[in-house]
């Protein structure tokens, strides 16, 4: 039998991950159009896929199960906070996609990510790309920085020590990982867990933006400075960023400390809990 090239291995992984996320979203059959999309030349080449985005959507399915928990009362109006500069570039106009189309659109982006080689160093050192996990209709998306060693091995974001702490934070909010969506600014692990380089963030930005436009969360929680700066284009320190809601597209964005920072500075856990209480209050999620 012929030996598989690394590219074929990566593609195979992407297809398996795609099928798993389809399955966990309740999809039992894949239609021909999706299969065709997953094998487009652009997807195979891993081109930065500004072109292939979510298709225009029919009206949002009203029968879809509520995500990120409990039927929420309408959120009170957001206090005025300086709008991030990037906001005007982000258009979430048009109707949101129903679940099956979101799964389909995310699968397309995931396949492109798996084949991406824009960052030469990351592409040659990663075990695999780490796309994102959770409910494609989540009301709340958590954005981290980049995969670490455990995530690089498992292909799932936030599964190492910091990830376990994030899981506890989510559960303390009476939610669980399956009803939110978790992703990173970078989809590849930087060697030695170094901070992502500006070029790497730029190369990956299109994927992040497309993920968010497909999911269209009502709320985004940026974990740490890299996620906050990358999404909002604000250079404020976390101490100044936290405690306010910002806008990205139609989403209300709250920034807080990264779980890895909490592992090094447990005293900051109380600040994160204050931030989570604020976020849950805005989401209409009642805490015990
Ligand atoms: N830190 C991150 O920012 N993301 C992960 O997925 C894991 C650790």
If you had to describe this structure to a student in words, what would you say it looks like?
There is one protein chain. With 288 residues, the chain is an alpha/beta fold. The protein has a single domain (6-49, 81-283), classed as 3-Layer(aba) Sandwich (Uracil-DNA Glycosylase, subunit E), CATH 3.40.470.10. It has twelve helices and six strands. The protein has helices at residues 6-24, 32-38, 41-45, 99-115, 120-125, 149-154, 161-172, 198-215, 224-232, 238-241, 259-264, 269-283; strands spanning 133-134, 140-144, 181-184, 219-223, 245-248, 251-256. The chain has a six-stranded mixed β-sheet with strand order 1-3-2-4-6-5. Strand 5 and strand 6 form a beta hairpin. Uracil binds at residues 144-148, 151, 157-158, 160, 162-163, 184, 260. The site of uracil has 13 residues, from helix 7.
Briefly say what this structure is.
The protein is α/β, with parallel strands linked by helices. It has twelve helices and six strands.
Number of domains in the coordinates?
1
End-to-end Cα distance: 58 Å
Strand order, largest beta sheet: 1-3-2-4-6-5
Q: How many E strands? A: 6
Strand-helix topology:
Layout: H1 6-24, H2 32-38, H3 41-45, H4 99-115, H5 120-125, E1 133-134, E2 140-144, H6 149-154, H7 161-172, E3 181-184, H8 198-215, E4 219-223, H9 224-232, H10 238-241, E5 245-248, E6 251-256, H11 259-264, H12 269-283
Parallel strand pairs: 2-3, 2-4, 4-6
Antiparallel strand pairs: 1-3, 5-6
Helix pairs in contact: 1-4, 4-8
The protein binds uracil.
